[in-house]
Amino acid sequence: MNAFGRSTLLVLTLVSAVSMADDQTPMTKEALAKAVPGSTMERTNDSGRVRNWTNNEDGSATITRMPRPGGKQGVQKTSGHWSISNDGRYCLTEDWSTKEGGPVDWCRHVVAGPGGALQFVN
């Protein structure tokens, strides 16, 4: 069980690095290593499409993309894997097919936001 418990939902949002308060520094690699395993995360893109995933303790991930608001495309699922880079960024590889726009690899620094919610930093 991780430090937050198995059923913790970590909702992540994108914030601009310039909008971070001076006292908000990215979480360390060690802090992320404790917070991420077993967690569920969610991200909404600019068009309103929600993607959520579970960070399994073995480094694998189960990823779901919900349809765009008003869209006709159904729910899509794929696997992937998460990691924490040497410089302390949370990284996710989404194994979508090329037809579905994949594969997708990305990394972001994470800060603890208001109320302890985790936020991605651009």
UniProtKB/TrEMBL annotation:
Residue ranges, compositional bias (Polar residues): 52-63
Origin organism lineage: Bacteria, Pseudomonadati, Pseudomonadota, Betaproteobacteria, Burkholderiales
Region Disordered, residue ranges: 34-80
The keyword Signal is annotated on this UniProt entry: yes
Superkingdom per UniProt: Bacteria
Name of the protein in question: DUF995 domain-containing protein
Keywords assigned by UniProt, alphabetized: Signal
Endpoints of the signal sequence: 1-21
